[in-house]
Amino acid sequence: MIQMLYISSATEPMSTDDLLGLLGECRENNAAAGITGMLLYGNATFLQVLEGEESVVDTLFERIRRDPRHTNVEVLHRKTIERRQYSDWSMGFKRVSAKELAQIEGLRDFDEQNFNQAYLTEHGSIVLSLMDHFRKERSKSIGHSELGLDEEDPLINLLHRIIRSAVRVLAVLMVITIAWGVVDVVNVLLYKVLAPSFEELRARDIIVTFGAFLAVLIAIEIFLNITLYLRDDVVPIKLVIATALMAIARKVIIFDFEKIEPLYVLATAAVVLALGIVYWLMDEKTTWSGRRH
């Protein structure tokens, strides 16, 4: 598998519709060929990285090189890779602007006018910084951004801020709950285990002790899930499923089978099975994706 980075100049400035049409073609062709990568455009200059099997990338690049919409196609680097850097999209895209360039760490003096073939060809480190920056930004944007604060609608941004504040309040309350649970564990240990004599200790007391410990552990896991909603770089679905599985498993440990109904046990088993299948499917998808790359 190889990664190829090339630069070229547009034969004429590209409009938004032109870029959308080009991007649609790229994504359709790349998805069919198993190609991943990213395309940057600005100041009538294309900067594109392609990843995939060597023969497939070479074939695609030859077709790209002959495209009349650009000229002076020049390969900046071509290297063998073991893993894809742009594995999450068939073709990421960013239209480079002066405002965004000004926000890139270490490129304060680099502006939109410098985004041209002559300058970038001579400054390979800047090219790598640009690709790395926009790759990371793109990764964040396709991640867990349901509560993002950069929406175009100011009302949506306000609502997201309110929800984020509510999440922080929930996190604080959960910490209080955890502390309360620890106090309960200490209380149970003192009055159920340490205070009675060994002869008076019953199985029910041990179960109550386990239950107090497990309640605190489950509360900690819920706290971790709550705080994930304040992050933009995490998709917490798999972790939530794993937390649900662990919580139910711990609940099963302290089941009092003399008091619960058989139907309750069957329902719990069905939930565990369903969550287990979903978790397995997600893990298989991740493993398969890793093998492809």
Describe this protein's structure:
59% of the residues lie in helices and 13% in strands. It has a five-stranded mixed β-sheet, sandwiched between helices. It is built from nine helices and five strands. Residues 286-293 have low confidence and may be disordered. It is elongated, with a radius of gyration of 27 Å.
Write a concise synopsis of the structure shown:
This protein has 293 residues and is α+β, with helices and mostly antiparallel strands. The protein contains nine helices and five strands.
How are the elements arranged and paired?
Blueprint: E1 2-10, H1 16-33, E2 36-42, E3 45-52, H2 54-65, E4 70-80, E5 92-95, H3 98-101, H4 117-122, H5 124-141, H6 154-194, H7 203-228, H8 237-253, H9 262-292
Parallel strand pairs: 2-5
Antiparallel strand pairs: 1-3, 1-4, 2-3
What structural class results from the helix and strand content?
A: alpha+beta
Shape, please? elongated
Number of helices: 9
| End-to-end C-alpha gap | 8 Å
List keywords for this structure.
293 residues; elongated; 9 helices; alpha+beta; disordered C terminus
